[in-house]
Design a protein that fits this description.
16 helices, 16 strands
Length: about 475
Amino acid sequence: MKTISIILISLLVLLFSCKPVVDEFTPGSNHLDFSRFAVLGNSLSAGFADAALYRSGQEYAFPNIMAQQFKTVGGGTFNIPFMPTEDGVRPNTTSQGIYFSTKLKVGYSMDCLGNTSLSPVPAVENPDQQKLFQELLTSVAALGPFNNTSVPATGITHLFFEGYGVLNPYYGRFAENPPKDRLIDEPAKIDPTFFFFWIGANDALGYASSGGVQPLTPVSGPIGVGFDATYNAAIATMVSYADKGLIGNVPDVTAAPYFTTVPYNPIVLTEQAQVDALNGAYAQYNQLMEANGLPYRINFALGQNPMVIMDVDMPLPPPYEQFKFRQAKENEYVLLSIPQDSIKCGGWGTQKPVPNKYVLTELETANVESAVDAYNSIIKKAAEDFNLALFDAFTFIGKTTETGIVEDGITFTGSFITGNTYSTDGLHLSPQGNAMVANICIEAINGKYGSNVPLCNVTDYPPLLLP
């Protein structure tokens, strides 16, 4: 018994003398100065979401979330050119002129067949155009200078353009002298100590989201024309303001729900009579293609069928230019902007080819991929040459699409509405998506500079609201 008692006492002494090792995280900047944090970017870093710019979207923008985390290691205030409305404002060009719309929300809508379903709907039906005009164009320059000078719809070649504020009201509303000011000069107004620069997505997205109608920014060319020269001039300018910072590369824009939600083959035929009627209508087309040794055929069958689309790049010789339409391929994208009622009730994709601006064809997709690869090579080299941290947005978007990302118990995917990553426009981030991006950016900064900026809690930010 004495031996057993001695053994028990020894074990108890050993147990209570071994204190558990706690891996405590101690916030620290490692001499980085976040007191004046400057951000220059496009709609993604401006907080544009749900197809508009609005106040809470700006508050949930990931640069603002980053700035709140920087405060734990000596960061300062973060001034934002807030919109005066929660409904949001977006100008749209129509055949009748400029029309202002509000943000989108998830709500119920009825289609042309009388079916009701959840979908993005305007937050305000038939909004007061004069009110939205004033909300967008009323200057807030007197409230500056601003830390976040990100401007929706901005591409790399806009940065050095004098008078860009006249062309883009999102910039004009906070520019001190819109007819003369250049966006690249805005960060200097706060004498920044650290910067974040993320521009380049729109240089590919404008082309992709217009179905190849708008041009891609060329890789080569002088400042204000080519991506290479303009990007490097922009980074050199930012480094002249602050020698430490973070830059982001261009994501795979076609991975967003705007491109992946509508299938290429939504035409469902359940009756043989429908099949026979459509095939009869295209019999002459098929005969013409066969007679001229061309590979194009349009054939329908029971079940799911690819839609008929316009393809302006089809290599058809004269006099067959009017036949530049065919059935879509599996590796082509139908844009979220396509009017669904036109497919269901207007004959689009069956009797009528879908207009080119609603489809990104195989060739156009290859053009986007080539441009993004070229842009990212330039950005990667700039990060190395200027010794800056790099936010790999391309890899991040790829992971959400291919495998999903789990953070703070939330699964983020590339699915529309249910994927948590994107807002209701299928292109811009949700509040929780912004929080996740903020953490990825902070991790990139910590990894590059050896700082210990704490991450945010993604669950502190709201998901998309459902009715």
